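Bit of a strange request maybe. I'm writing a small parser for structure token strings and I need a real example to test against, not something I typed by hand. Could someone generate the tokens for this chain?
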Amino acid sequence: MNSLLNLPLFIKALDQLTLPHEMPFKINLLTWALSYAKYTEQPRLEAILHGIRGTCHMQNLQGNQEENLEYALADFNAVLEVFTSATDVVAPREWAEIRCNRGTAYYNRTRGDRANNLEQALADFDAALEVFTRDTWPLDWAMTLDSRGIVYSERVSGQPTDNLQQAIADFDAALTVFSHETAPDRHHDLYLQRLHAQQQLDRLLSL
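Reply from user aminoacidic:
Good idea to test on real output. This should exercise your parser:
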């Protein structure tokens, strides 16, 4: 690593910038670092920085939120052009986190076709779940299932009853990790999401 950018120290410094009003400055720092990485022809470093900046764009409460989401998607896409699968990286968990972040961005996206955005979100969560398992990273596994369940409950494509049944299955699986005793708030939210999906399914089946 070129001494002009010590990545561990740079990331450690970035980690100190956590407040909402600091996000634009943090994004500017990352943009400078990306210019350096591109100039020195370090594509893997570029990908790492894009991943961090994409997360910052999602957390940035300033400016146009719709545009912030598009910036985040562009960054996550840049990461996944370099790291095309979990086997391309030293730390598969970080790759899966990028897929989860992009899935969340697509779910929240207001531009483009809603059905296509939801399908892309599902593809990203499915890919993350190839890395996140109950045995290896149970909390990440459960959170990803929670996110996927929400997407299935709102899915435009496919059969509505099939989508709702999958959503319920995802919520049930997540509830095995987020119990009332260990995570009461998360358990409560999941329970309500499952209840709503079940009510929708019962309504469709009664027609």
